[in-house]
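Entry 14. Ran structure prediction on the chain below.
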Amino acid sequence: MPQKKDSRNGHAFHPIMRKGGVHDKTNKAKRKTDRQQVAKKVNDYLTKGNNKKAAEDAAASFFTAVLA
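Output, structure tokens:
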């Protein structure tokens, strides 16, 4: 006599439940953190020469080009 298979939880396979799982960052959030890290590196590099006005101008032009 074959053994009876264990019944499965019908709610666990419901289509609306597929939204569950690991809560990763959205792609938008990942891009934002990448932009922030690049901006920080650019700003650190430019301020290394103690010319803050040039650093601010360069950072502003960098972001207008990136965001455009």
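Helices lie at 27-47, 52-67. Will compare against last week's run tomorrow.
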